[in-house]
Write a structure and sequence with these properties.
Layout lengths: L1 E2 L12 H5 L3 H23 L4 H4 L3 E7 L13 H12 L5 E5 L2 H9 L5 E5 L3 H6 L11 E6 L5 H32 L4 H8 L3 E6 L12 H27 L5 E3 L2 E3 L8 H30 L7 H26 L3 H11 L16 H6 L4 H14 L8 H28 L12
Parallel strand pairs: 2-3, 2-4, 5-6
Antiparallel strand pairs: 1-8, 4-5, 7-8
Helix pairs in contact: 4-7, 7-8, 9-10, 9-11, 9-12, 9-14, 10-11, 10-15, 11-12, 11-14, 11-15, 14-15
Protein name: SNG1 family protein
Family: Belongs to the ABC-2 integral membrane protein family.
Keywords: Cell membrane, Membrane, Transmembrane, Transmembrane helix
Length: 429
């Protein structure tokens, strides 16, 4: 290893300003940097600019436990009337109201299939009817349940929609009751109460721990896994190339060049993948130690979380090595878009997929971040239920494994058979 200025006679060097006048030197860095800035801006901001306008069939449960009997002169209990008013008061393209029983609602909250619920309690009709009698003790209540494990924004959207629908439905029922009360000559105070007879309470339907970042720890934990695998994969790629003598190794002013090792592209890729698999054991363990042991993140099923995290990190690491082997110098940019730029806005972990444009919902079908985040969320918040996203996470990790191996070794084998060997460097005499 040598350092510049170590006493040896240095050859004349070009001046930076003189070299900068050559236009061709600017073309590739300028074009690539501009494209990265443009597409990153469009991708990231395009997914979050207006979730309300992008909302498509957000699943919310509607539970009607009111069995009546109907009020005098009416055909149905008020619960049925309110349910109908709730469904008609919201666009069908924006919300998917699922009419469920109490047990079905609890199951879908616990399996991450609904973002919240609006519950009409038993005896709702009786409690509304009691407002016109001395037996009234409190205003009838509707309950809005949230599902914070699906993220604070998704849970908040479901809560706002449910509360708005409940209030509008209360006004519809209130107009009917007020008209009846006016016909009977009721007092003005009672008519005002009947105009909006229902109060709404909000509470978590599937609570999560206090140290869960309001449902965001799954996203950030997944981000740590993906970034560690992505950055680590590129560090391994560059380190192996330097160790085998195919690139220079520079640390500060120190520079070294190892003798070139005659090795095929396929064997080089195999070496990098073996190192990725080994180093991922350490990076996964350190990520869990930092987040759970040091910072106190709420987590259960620790052995399962470690195994899932390791396999997810390894799948990303193998993908990075395959892309770098196939695309060479621009491989890091390609893998950055595959595993980070396209992945974050389509993850569904911060903004629900139902609240992003269709392009991102399409990406979510195969982007690895989405699959890993769903599995991590199932382990952290939903008791590691397979139907809460864990089964899909395992399936997509296995597919990612297979694709990385098949693509990487197919490309390097092709290059080797075509005689497209890497450039061999020799020491200057």
């Amino acid at each position: 290893m040598t350092a510049a200025g170590s006493g040896q006679q240095q050859p004349p060097s070009a001046r930076a300003l003189a070299v900068a006048r050559h236009g061709r030197l600017w073309i590739v860095p300028t074009v690539l940097s501009s494209l990265v800035a443009l597409f990153l801006s469009l991708l990231y901001m395009g997914g979050i600019v207006d979730p309300n306008d992008s909302l498509r069939r957000l699943p919310i449960a509607l539970v009607d436990s009111d069995q009546g009997p109907p009020l005098p002169g009416q055909q149905q209990p008020l619960g049925a009337q309110l349910s109908r008013a709730v469904v008609t008061s919201t666009p069908s393209t924006a919300v998917e109201w699922r009419r469920l029983s109490q047990a079905q609602m609890q199951d879908q909250l616990a399996s991450a299939r609904i973002y919240g619920a609006l519950v009409i309690p038993a005896g709702f009709t009786t409690s509304v009817g009691a407002l016109t009698t001395p037996r009234a003790t409190a205003r009838p209540t509707l309950t809005v349940l949230t599902n914070p494990g699906l993220g604070s924004l998704g849970s908040s959207l479901a809560s706002q929609i449910s509360q708005t629908a409940a209030h509008q439905s209360s006004l519809v029922i209130g107009r009917q009751l007020s008209a009846q009360a006016s016909a009977k000559g009721a007092e003005a105070t009672l008519r005002a109460l009947l105009a909006d007879p229902v109060t709404v309470t909000v509470r978590p339907g599937h609570p999560i721990g206090r140290h869960s970042g309001l449902g965001l720890t799954a996203f950030y934990y997944t981000l740590l896994l993906v970034l560690a695998a992505f950055v680590g994969g590129n560090i391994i790629n560059n380190g192996v190339d330097a160790g085998l003598g195919y690139t220079d190794n520079e640390i500060g002013p120190w520079h070294s060049r190892r003798p070139t090792v005659p090795i095929s592209r396929t064997q080089t890729l195999l070496l990098k993948m073996i190192m990725s698999a080994a180093i991922a054991v350490l990076t996964t363990s350190l990520t869990m130690v930092a987040t759970i042991a040091v910072l106190g993140m709420d987590a259960s099923h620790i052995p399962l979380l470690w195994i899932f995290s390791y396999c997810a990190s390894l799948a990303v690491g193998l993908g990075v090595q395959a892309i770098n082997a196939a695309f060479g110098g621009i491989g890091q940019i390609v893998s950055m878009f595959v595993f980070v730029a396209l992945a974050l806005p389509s993850s569904g972990a911060t903004v629900p997929l139902q609240a992003v444009p269709g392009f991102y919902r399409f990406l979510a079908l195969f982007e690895p971040f989405r699959q890993v985040a769903g599995g991590v969320r199932a382990v952290l918040y939903f008791d590691a239920r397979a139907d809460a996203g864990l089964s899909r996470g395992w399936t997509m990790i296995a597919i990612g494994f297979a694709l990385a191996l098949a693509f990487g070794f197919a490309m390097t084998t092709y290059y080797d058979r075509k005689g497209l060997r890497r450039m061999v460097f020799t020491e200057a005499g």
